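Dear colleagues,

I hope this message finds you well. In preparation for our joint manuscript, I am sending the Polyprenyl synthetase family protein (Streptomyces halstedii) sequence together with its predicted structure, so that both groups work from identical material. I would be grateful if you could confirm receipt.
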Amino acid sequence: MTDTPGPVERMLARAAAHERRFGALLQEYFDTLGATLEAPAFSRYAPECVHLLRELSLRGGKRMRVVLLHEAAGLVSAEPAEGLDAAALSIELLHTHGLVHDDLIDDSPTRRGGPSTYYAYRDRFPHHPRAALGLTVLAGDLALGLSLRVLTEAPLPVALRQAMTEVVTRAAADTFVGQIADLERDFTATVPSEDVLHSVADFKSARYSVLAPLRLGLLAAGGQPAVFDEELRRYARLVGICGQMRDDYLDLFGDPDIMGKPVGTDIRDGRRSYTVGALLSVVSGTERALVESALGDPSCPPGTLAALREIGERQGVAAGARAEMRRHAEQASQVAAGWRTRWREDAVAFFEHLPLWSVERSG
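The corresponding C-alpha cells are as follows:
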C-alpha cells in the first residue's frame, strides 16, 4: 500500500518542479544573453561580468520567489499563465542584483558555496581594489537592468507588461530603501525596537521576495492584486519577518557548511540584527562586555563566536528566536487560510503551509 503524501510533501514536490523548470529556463536565458546584450567589440570586462552573474545566478538557492509567483497564479487558475517565465526571470535577476550588492556591503567572501562576485573581482584585480569595487557595483547594476529589460521586451500585452514592470520597479525601490534603513539601524546608540526591526525586514526583504511574486503571479493569471493588497501585504510582511529572523538566527547559531556562507557576519559587522539585539537585551556584566567587545570587530575569532553562541543558548536567546519565528509563521498561515473563500484550495493550502515549513526546515 502506497502512503498518500501529506500537504507539506505535496508543497515541496510542487516547489521542486517549479525549481527544476526554472533552472532550465535561467540557463537558456544566459546562453542566449551574449547574442542580445550589446557591448563594445573590444570589451573583455563586459562578458566577464555576464559570466560572473551567470555563475552566481545558476549556483542555486531554492528559487522560492519563482515558486511563489507560480503558486500565486495558481490561486486564480490551474491553467498555465501568460508572462510567468518573464516574471520569474525578472524577479530572480533582481535577487541576483541584491546578492551582489549585499556581499559587497557585508564584505562576504562566499555565496551559495562559491566566491561572491566582489571577491571574484578582488582575485581578478588584486592590485586594483577600486576597480574590483567599481566592477562589483556595476555587475549588480547590470543585473537590475536585465531584470527590467526582461519584462519590457517580453511578448506580452502592453497593459500586462507595464503592470509587471511597475511591480518589479516598485519592489526594487522598496528594497533599496530597506537596505538604507538596515544600515541606519546599526548606527543607533540603543538596541533597535521590534517595530524598527520589523520595518527593515518588510522593506528590505518581504516586499521583493514575497509581495512582488504574489502580485506578479496574480497579474499573470488575470487576477487583480490591488483589490486584495492589504491581505497580500500582511502575509508578505509576516513571512518576510520570519525569513529575516531565521537569517539572523542562523548567522549566530547556524552551520556554515549547510548555509554555504560563514557565520558571525552580523557580530563582526556590528549589526543590530534580531539575534544580536536579543543577545544584548539579556546579557550583563562580563557577558555583556564580551558581546560589546566582539560587536563590530572584523577579526572576532571563532572561539569568541562559539562563546557567544553558548551564552545565547544558555540565556534563552536561541529558543526565544525559534518561538518568535513560529509565532509569526502561524499568523501568516492564518492569513492564507482566509483566502479559501475566493481562491483555489490547493494553492491556498500551499501558502498556508509554507510559513511554518520555512522556519522549521533544516537547510
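For the figure legend, we might mention the following. The beta strands are 110-111, 114-115. The CA atoms of residues 238 and 292 lie 30 Å apart.

With kind regards,
E.M.
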